[in-house]
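Hi,

I'm pasting everything inline rather than attaching a file, because the server keeps stripping attachments. The sequence lines come first, and each chain or strand is labelled.
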Amino acid sequence: MTIKNVKDLNKIRKTSLATQKKHPKKVLVCCGTGCIANGALKIVDSVRDGLEKRNLKDVTVEILKETGCHGFCELGPLVIIEPQETFYTKVKPKHIEDILDKSFLDNEVIEPLLFTNPVDGSKITKYNDISFFKHQQRIALRNLGKISAHDMNEYIGVDGYQALAKVLFEMTPDEVIGEVTKSGLRGRGGGGFSAGRKWKICKDIKADKHYVICNGDEGDPGAFMDRSIMEGDPHGVLEGMMIAAYAIGAKEGYIYVRDEYPLAVKHLEKAILDCERTGLLGENILGSDFSFTIKIARGAGAFVCGESSALMKSVAGEVGEPRAKYVRSVVKGLYDEPTVLNNVETLVNVPTIIRKGADWYSSIGTKKSTGTQVFSLVGKVRNTGLIEVPMGITLREIIFDIGGGILDDRPFKAVQTGGPSGGCIPESMLDLPVDFDSLTEVGSMMGSGGLIVMDDKTCIVDIAKYFLEFLVEESCGKCTPCCEGLYQLLKIVERICAGKGVEADIEKMERLSENIMLGSLCGLGKSGPNPLMSTLKYFKDEYIAHIKDKKCPAGVCPELITYEILDNCTGCMACIPACGYDAIEGKKKEVHVITQDKCTKCGACYAVCNFDSILVS
Amino acid sequence: MIHITINGKVVQAKDGEMLLTVIRREQIDIPTLCHHEAVEPSGACRLCMVEITKPSWDGWCDYVTSCLYPAEDGLIVNTHAPKVNELRSSILDMFLARHPKSPEIRQLAAEYGVMKTQFEEVVDGDNCILCGICTRICDTMGFKAISMVGRGHGKEVAPPLNMAPAACVGCLSCAKNCPTNYIEYNMKNGGLTIWKKDFEMIACTECGATTITKEFAEYLSVNRDIPFDYFEKCDACHRKELAGTMGRIANWDREARS
Amino acid sequence: MNKRFIVKPELCTGCRSCELACSFTHAIDGVRSLTRINPIDGGFKDLWVPVTCLQCDDAACIKSCLVNALKRNPVTGAVELNHEVCVNCMACVAACPFGCAILDTQTNLIVKCDLCGGDPACAHFCPTKALVWELIKKAVKKTG
Ligand SMILES: Cc1cc2nc3c(=O)[nH]c(=O)nc-3n(C[C@H](O)[C@H](O)[C@H](O)COP(=O)(O)O)c2cc1C
Ligand code: SF4
Ligand code: SF4
Ligand code: SF4
Ligand code: SF4
Ligand code: FES
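And the predicted assembly:
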């Protein structure tokens, strides 16, 4: 049906709510990319078959929900039974019969499939009792894991497009901008620029056309919040874009989606088509004067294409290379017209802000960083995944309360925030409230919200090397300081890791870093030395250990470590076949020996030894 | 007309003209490697960076590429601020490490006091500094026969699919404007080869001298409305022809008078 | 400027003072440039034709230049070549039907007559007044 006005919209909302109520019992299967990779689609099929067998075929749509990502991908496929909120992890098709009979038709709980608390080994039944979810506050991820990602009516059922109706009929564009400005919403794509102010600048420029672009390029390694949002709540993104378009007077919008995200593209395409068919996109939306269309632009597969000027060139069909500019893209962007570029997460927050008001939003978080932030928590923590927390929460709360602490109870060493443009934060700063400004102050960045937790077995020089490798690979190669400078930084760090560093290298790296930051054209180069600089600042000792003592304290850099067998070796001979290089000799029940010039430091023996007899130093 | 201050001296400039143009007009020497007046500035080499400030900026200053920064009234420019000098030699040092064999780069680096690189030399490095002058010129002329391919260290200038580019007319503008003379071409026996494409040169109908390729002449004739026969004689023979015509007229005059 | 450049071959003795004047006037950093004017044998006894750019109305050189390095100076009427912009493609050299855009092989620059920006040196130096830079009114009277 078409949605010609607000009345039609509300009718759908009512019917959608009513159908949901008719069948309060539901089976939610997470169908995010992570769970699909673990076999979620087979689970969906099994549930469908199971329902048919039980004569529930007609109400499958009401019962079975293929939801967006919960953020807890490592435990997927995830299945939730509502209304009990029973949370099952690592579900296989063979479990479905049991789940349907016992858990869905009855109120039983299937113990083995429950989540195991990694801290004490206890089983947790309910979704919201799990510490990973308990401490979260979900605004951007509000619909993820709750509704069927590809069903527009369900989105409308959870107040979808109400914010659009509100701005179209109750607010002027300036009032919308005022509300978003007042909410304090800052860009979640890295820069943290006020969204409302950006819209205001753009709106005030007289031009033939204005554009809205949603940045879904998400290139930071390990970050996947934008993907999850586009997959799991595509209508939320569209509604955010429509509100932005109304505010700045744009008639055309683009979503720039990273090429590696086919599912996001599929869901967005479906959502756009549904909107076009019903009239939520096109001419005179909801009977108002507002007309708007959205097109999808596929990313060019390079990290730098997420940078605003490169992205706009890429959308326009040119090579996605940053353009040097002293005129900002809000003024002269896509096709040289004023353009608002916002990140996926920024835009998906907008409808809720409009519905609940700026004051509500700004009451969450800190004074200068309002609202919540989605992080992708990875590394050496017990619970990894996507989380959304209020700004101002401390790193300690994130890592220890939500993350459940460090794996194997090892000591915490550092946390890397902000991806390739960010930096490493040491233990002494664990109580740092996480917001845009405090992270920048300590030499890191909010970036796109990546959090990589490291324990004492992580070599900090190796981490710097990893990020430099990434950046050298991703630098577009246009400007010299970034392309050549980062390459030379990498060469120096590689030398240090190989035990060939000299003391003067530290100063050389510092000076080179400064010149790269000063001289580079775009944000990639300007912030590229951050990972190195921050580790140099907080972990200089570790660099010195590599350079002067030729030692890698974490036991990571192959050239700087030795593997030895201690006297408590039982002579079990397990390590001998494990070594692919014939470096270990020894007879049964006698202490084995490693021939050092044959050893390649691969660590295979260390992994197989059951008696902690292999010493890495 | 607006006024800006460059290295302490107040100079006139046109509103919106690029700082580099003003700086060069003032005969102040700053190096550039990616700048060419025929094409849009790109800001790739970063050598032309200068320090700018304004009285209203409260002592804060910014560093910008002068090839791209439009002059504004009241701007105070320092083309050789300490940070800028350091950046320039650092960049030249990076260039030197990357293209140790390029005579042009070595000379420029030496001019700015970098005789030997402090970085690791790239052994198998070629001499293309990725300034993009060739591709931008080719784009501006309307051919778009070559472009930058790849990214980062693997980036290179190449025709599409690395095959003889259909769009190339053999005007040689890319090769002749390459700051490191990296682009090779071969001209012999009335033919020309560049980017693996072979061209026929037009030979002067009088003396056989060659000036441009047949393909380029045809392009100009079709797209620029120039009779093709203009291209059939070389400049020297055209001058002789003109002398002959004017000579005949002058001779009539002379005979008529005497 | 209501002046125009007139060539009178019947007065030219082929002394080549114009060449020298042109060459020195356009010197860059003290290096002489290629002359833009050449007295060429007119094919008759004692007849020399000083050949130089005619500053055509519908100039082939301007049309041939794909980077807009050639532009007409609205004051002098001369077609001027901007060396900073020129990419040495040789289009104008090939296109000019009178061979008056030429390659200076010493400097590798394309050069052509620019009427010295409004005061042609050759006219000053021509001892027989075969080259004149005169007011258009006068010229109209003379030819008309
Ligand atoms: C090298 C580089 C890569 C970037 N990648 C992304 C990206 O993947 N996604 C994104 O939203 N912003 C990215 N940005 C930031 C964008 O340029 C831009 O600031 C942002 O999309 C603006 O949206 P916001 O104000 O909502 O944050 C990148 C910036 C740089 C310099
Ligand atoms: S800073 Fe790096 S990514 Fe950005 S334009 Fe320069 S080379 Fe390209
Ligand atoms: S080939 Fe020459 S002109 Fe082209 S990018 Fe390389 S250095 Fe520049
Ligand atoms: S150079 Fe040739 S084409 Fe150009 S104006 Fe002079 S005579 Fe005419
Ligand atoms: S040689 Fe120079 S002036 Fe002549 S057409 Fe080519 S670019 Fe233009
Ligand atoms: S001249 Fe190369 S960046 Fe300006």
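Chain C has a mean pLDDT of 92.

If the labels don't parse on your end, tell me and I'll reformat.
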